[in-house]
Amino acid sequence: MTVRLDETDRKILLQLQQDAAQSLDDIARKVGSSKTPVWNRIRKMKEAGIIGAQVALLDAESLGFDACFFVLIRTSEHEADWQAAFLKALKDRPEVQEAHRLAGDIDYILKVRVRNARAYDAFYQALISEVKVHNVTALLSMEQIKSTTALPL
Prior knowledge:
One of its GO terms (cellular component) is cytosol. By secondary structure, this protein is of the alpha+beta class.
């Protein structure tokens, strides 16, 4: 279901995408409104599910997670039991930052953040010990060129 947003809602969302920790006063000033209407709009957008969890974005490399792998997975298994086990294995692994089921030749792609290649191998060995996969290709990101959580409002 698509929720109708007006220009003020979009301005508020743009501000929150830039810095969700800024004060209501700052957001209201930047969008040309006052604090109470901005708070009410934010509350309504949270209730509608437009605004989800508000989190702190951490710098992976500063914390020692220097390796980012994109893992391409092909499987010959498509039964419900296999899918449930696969999804559980992914959800149980904090190294998996994103997981997508794809259309095309590759069934799944994972974004996996680890400290180094040895840590990736430990992740890989644990994953394949839990679920059967037909083929796994790991691609090491050499440089992150762009990363954003912001939607193009």
